[in-house]
Amino acid sequence: MIDDLSTGYVVGGAGILLAIGREAWSRFFSPESKAEGLLVQQLTERIASQEQRLLTLESGLDTERAMRRAAELRVQALEVYIVMLKAELRRNGIEVPAHQGAAE
């Protein structure tokens, strides 16, 4: 009875050691796991570079949007200034010809 019990423990312990060894082999030493690790590393690097590229593009777009808004504000200010100048000229009896490309 004791021999059967100790034999069971030995077999069970050996089975556990075999499972741990097999897991360690497949995880750390097998060529497939090394290839997987290399692939994961490469993909992680590619994702990081793509994220950096996306951030750079977004910041460039933000800069372009800000520049466009500033230009639109300047154009609007100039349009208002032109309208005021035309009104002042007309008030003083000076006729202002229409711009060839603009409809008034």
Rg over CA atoms, rounded to whole Å, is 39 Å
User: Which regions have little confidence, pLDDT < 50, spanning 5+ residues?
Assistant: none
Mean pLDDT: 85
Q: Figure out the total of helices.
A: 2
Q: What is the overall shape?
A: rod-shaped
Q: Class by helix and strand content? A: mainly alpha
- Classify the helix fraction into a percent range: over 70%
Q: What's the order of the H and E elements? A: HH
**How much of the sequence is in beta strands?**
under 5%
Q: Largest sheet at a glance?
A: none
The CA-CA distance between the termini, in Å, is 110 Å
The count of strands amounts to 0
Topology of this structure?
Blueprint: H1 2-29, H2 31-91
Outline the structure in words:
The protein has 104 residues and is mainly α. It has a domain at 2-65. Helix content is 86%, strand content 0%. The protein contains 2 helices and no strands. It has helices at residues 2-29, 31-91. Helix 1 (2-29) packs across helix 2 (31-91). The longest helix is centred in the middle third of the chain and has 61 residues, at 31-91. The radius of gyration is 39 Å and the shape is rod-shaped. The protein starts with a helix and ends in a 13-residue tail after the last helix.
Characteristics of this structure?
86% helix, mainly alpha, 104 residues, 2 helices
Summarize, please.
With 104 residues, the chain is an all-alpha fold. The chain is 86% helix and 0% strand.
